[in-house]
Amino acid sequence: MTQTRVSAPQFFSLLYLSVLSSIFMYISSPEITVSETDSLLRPLIFIVISIIAGIPTFLIYKEINKSESLKTTLTESKFFKVIATFYGAVYFIGIIRTAARFDLFASSELFPGTEMTLFIIALIVVCALLSLLGLGALSRAGVIFVVIVVGATGFVMLSLLEEVDLLNFTPLFREGALNFIWDSVLFAVQASEIGAIALVLPEIKGNVTKNYILWSVFSGLSFIVVLFFVVGTLGVFADTQLFPTYTAVTLAKFGLLERMDALETAIWILCVVEKIAFYFLVISKSFKIVFKKVSKRLICIVSSVLVSIVLAFISSNLERFSFISYTPVVLAMYIVPVIVLPLATVIYLKKVKPCEKNSETD
């Protein structure tokens, strides 16, 4: 068991890549204005919300570490199976949302008018197979990929410096403080992978709380850098683009290299693969709790087939994609795994704890 555990920095490297894919393929919508200078402050709210939202998960970890019998009671209970089912369902939808977003990006920006369904299905199969390598392999690969992603993205952003126009930066809170707060909340809830930490905590060694805070801060600062160049290069034009980050990257040039977007697209694919593979891992862990006699391999196969069927239905159809991108769906994808399920688990542990003490006394 000890050999399969990963260090906290390794795991949060994986999580960093996962959340970074959200900002890379950020879709402009009427509800959130990208062009406002307020965009640069939203990641600060993201940091605060992420740190607060992580508290229920770490309360669970604190409780079960106090008593091995309490941990056993939780993992063998019907309640735990119900919770695991919800986790599996949420991240099943998460895979569909992520893959559908990438499908939309590829068919509208990379290869306009091209049917990408087969490519997306192939991507799903690859990610499902990668998830079978385990959390250790994904996390250790994440460390290497973070170096590549940060280095390449930093290079692209620096090459955009000469395209930045300070006149594109508008006065702060032009649309009002309440609109800023709501936009910031909608921005922060893109990071639904936070909820998955609860399922993999036993496999992580080291100071998880400290590294989680560092992850939140580093992710937020990365968002600020990316959004600075989006706002600075595009201005109000950013709100007319489906994928404003990609549009900004297409302006990047360095000497004879005039297709920096190709480099950044490769980086984005890397992030998407890590994210989907991680979600498949979470799904296999979740449903393995519910169906103990079923292998994780079979769970991955069935999940990938079901995801592929749904994606074939959604592929390249903006109306169908918009259904899984509605604000209530996005909010639920964050609130349920990050807040509701961990809080429900904490309450359950508080209720069974006295019973555990009584049984030990007897």
Key phrases:
single chain; 362 residues; mainly alpha; two-stranded parallel sheet; 1% strand
What does this 3D model show about the protein?
By secondary structure, this protein is mainly α. It is 72% helix and 1% strand. It contains 15 helices and two strands. The protein has helices at 8-24, 42-53, 55-66, 68-75, 78-110, 117-131, 135-159, 177-188, 197-200, 208-234, 244-249, 260-290, 296-314, 318-323, 327-361, and strands at 6-7, 204-205. It has a two-stranded parallel sheet. Helix 5 packs antiparallel against helix 6 and helix 12 (260-290) crosses helix 13 (296-314). It starts with 5 loop residues before the first strand and ends with a helix.
